[in-house]
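As noted in the main text, all predictions were made from sequence alone. Below is one such record, for AIPR protein.
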Amino acid sequence: MNEVIRERLAAFRSDQDLPGLDDAQLFEVFAAYCVLHRFHEDKFEPELHRTGGGNDLGVDAWGIVVNGDLFHDFDGVKHAVEASRELNVVVIVVQAKTSGSYEGKVVADLADNLRQICARPPISYSASPEVVELHDALGLVYDNQHKLTEHSPRLEVRYVHCGQEPNEDLLEKCRSAEASLDELGRFQSVRFAAVGWRELDRLFKRTLRKVKVHFDWPSRTAIPVMEGVKEAWMGTIPASVIVESLLVDEGGSIRKFLFEDNLREFLGAQNEVNDGIALTLADPAKRRRFAVLNNGITVLAEHFDTSGVECHMSDFQIVNGCQTGHVLFENRDKLTDDVHVKLIVIETENSEIAGDITVATNRQTEIAPEDLRADQQIHKDIEAFFQTRKDLYYERRSGQYEARSVTMTRVIRQNQLVQAYASVFRGHVHEASRTAKLRRDPALRIFHPETHAIAYYTAAATWYQVEWLFRNNRVAAKWRPVRFMLMAAVVARFSNGEKLPASPAKATRYCEALLQKIWDRDEVERLVSLMVGRLERMTDAESSKQRLSDLARTRGFTERFLKEAAGVE
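Prediction:
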């Protein structure tokens, strides 16, 4: 293995907390991380995309990006396809070998296998469950041809190795592989490329950089200097520039992570307001007046520099304009040169000022009071409690730990915390993947001011311990769809079935007792192993023969499992 890559792998192993993987397995995860990041710039867990085991047909990792979201399983792709009116799809396949030289035969064999995987009929070769999921997920995409955008779907294949960059002979083999896969008629474009150690190192360095954009903005005006604001600008800008320069990544997908600090998620194209925005863009006369008919977009940036009309911006969030941004993206084919949008860019000096601006700009639109408290005290309390323990970190604001020396797998994002908390303390294991629904349900009281910070930390610790077992191959990857069931079962066993008390003092005692057991990894692993054995018997006896991911979303199955898990010894 190349020495530069060996050093990168050592740091990557520590950062991703993957001590249980051997060098070959770790390289597969590393290659997946570097390649997938090019098509999905948001944070993701690369080990989820590794196929592992035998019969992988040369596919060491895969991912499918649907409308800016990255998926690693059939269930995720299915949900995205069913929920979307329009589909922008990029399929990424990675084969990774630690060899110090490339092999032309690998390219030909992988192309032959992909012809099987990407074709309509069932795969005639023996294939692992993860590869079958890829085949079935592609079938879902093909079944929804009417939703696909003009240049979708795309297939991106990378053969990653530790040798030199490809010579003309290998390049020719890659071109032949592209032609072979293009003959299937399944993709609007196919790219098959070999990645040597220098290109791999370059891709890895890209993962360390913040998103940087540059664009021309001649019609901007400086806003007078004010306390807490380094500088601010406002003006109008062509909507096409907003979409092409800010909103869209290299894969052609919307950068959804730019809206993480927004107080409201995208409400969908069928929402009355968003439908009105789309109708305005569809009307040749009205769209020329878009800048005065729409509230525009407000951006908070860590760094914003200008030189004449040219602007450079990095580490930024769209804090107001989530609906406008998404509708502009979905209607980008209608954005003629005369469609302009109002833009405000603010370079702040501290996060508290940023929070104030986020709330203030959203008070001008119809938004629920509870959403206006995205920076509310409960989030600060949770963050502060995590800091007292110094082993997990709550990401209250997007990207706040990226520049710090922390193990990123110990950083718990808001959606992950919602999933863990709803599963272990609110009995909604079967709906854990539906984070937006969980947050909107008032009965669950997630992030309610009267809930307890220590309970969120306890849920996060359970998440971390169970995820660690999967990341390090202590539990087979095929059981990952039921990980929330396993988390809930572990907490139920450790608490002897007792529920989280409402009283702050009792809740603290309850959680402290739980945490002593949860941080005992050997005991957690022992329990999970026993529960997986029980799961295996239950699924084998299941008459419906549903996918495991479908069973995990069924209340009846999850309740039966939790009852069974209560008696394992």
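Confidence is low (pLDDT under 50) at residues 364-375. The two ends are 44 Å apart (CA to CA). These features were considered when defining construct boundaries for the mutagenesis experiments described in Section 2.9.
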